[in-house]
């Protein structure tokens, strides 16, 4: 039912906060190479703000969709920064694929994830090759859709997509940045992966593990 679904979403938000805290220093360090070094902090502020908003929504008896809308708004407000606005928009877009009244089935979960990645692209205007989180998010969404069509299994599909996202995030080390703050120091980022791509892959890996647990 809808309670089950909202509680599941909340567990995922709590998980995201845990993962962001665990990797805060590393994400800050790779952002400092060609950016302003605040990506770890931004992800912790955003994910903890989202988790907090989710807890409050759950207490009020909110359904999955409403909970995720509140979480998305809180993520962008708490994080500030480019990635905060993008993650907030992603959560809000994912919410639109969910229902407040019914539980979330696997097909809806896939739709929600694909909608989230579409929202990142729409808001940020970045394409693959610009050295942003899109370099992990686009292959993630592609693999997710392909795998789900093939096996109709959410856990297997998200896991495969997360593996692809992780490899793609690592490959951004070979690119120089063209967008965001890092554009000024684009060449400096050669040899270091894009922080937003790395954090995206970390969160999707955690999501895959959660679905399999
Ligand atoms: P800020 O750049 O405001 O300090 P963060 O450090 O939190 O924000 O996030 C930086 C990350 O945001 C980059 O590593 C990149 O992945 C992502 N990013 C920046 N601009 C864009 C964009 N236009 N589209 C998609 N992602 C972007
Ligand atoms: Mg930054
Ligand atoms: Mg910043």
UniProtKB/TrEMBL annotation:
**Parts of the chain that traverse the membrane:** none
- Signal peptide from the UniProt entry: none
- Highest taxon listed in the record's lineage: Bacteria
Q: Which residues form the DhaL domain?
A: 7-209
Q: What is this protein called?
A: DAK2 domain-containing protein
Q: Which organism is it from?
A: Nesterenkonia alkaliphila
Organism placement in taxonomy: Bacteria, Bacillati, Actinomycetota, Actinomycetes, Micrococcales
């Amino acid at each position: 039912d809808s309670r089950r679904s909202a509680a599941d979403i909340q567990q995922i938000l709590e998980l995201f906060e845990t993962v962001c805290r665990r990797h805060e220093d590393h994400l800050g360090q790779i952002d400092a190479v060609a950016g302003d070094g605040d990506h770890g902090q931004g992800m912790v502020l955003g994910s903890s703000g989202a988790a907090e908003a989710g807890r409050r929504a759950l207490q009020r008896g909110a359904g999955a969709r409403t909970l995720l809308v509140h979480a998305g708004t809180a993520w962008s407000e708490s994080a500030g920064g480019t990635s905060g606005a993008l993650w907030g928009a992603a959560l809000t877009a994912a919410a639109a694929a969910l229902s407040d009244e019914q539980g979330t089935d696997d097909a809806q979960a896939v739709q929600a994830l694909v909608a989230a990645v579409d929202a990142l692209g729409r808001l940020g205007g970045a394409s693959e090759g610009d050295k942003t989180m899109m370099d992990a998010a686009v292959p993630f969404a592609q693999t997710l859709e392909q795998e789900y069509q093939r096996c109709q299994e959410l856990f297997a599909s998200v896991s495969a997509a997360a593996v692809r996202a992780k490899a793609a995030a690592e490959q951004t080390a070979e690119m120089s940045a063209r967008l965001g703050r890092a554009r000024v120091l684009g060449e400096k980022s050669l040899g270091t992966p894009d922080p937003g791509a790395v954090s995206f892959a970390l969160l999707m890996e955690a999501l895959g593990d959660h679905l399999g647990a």
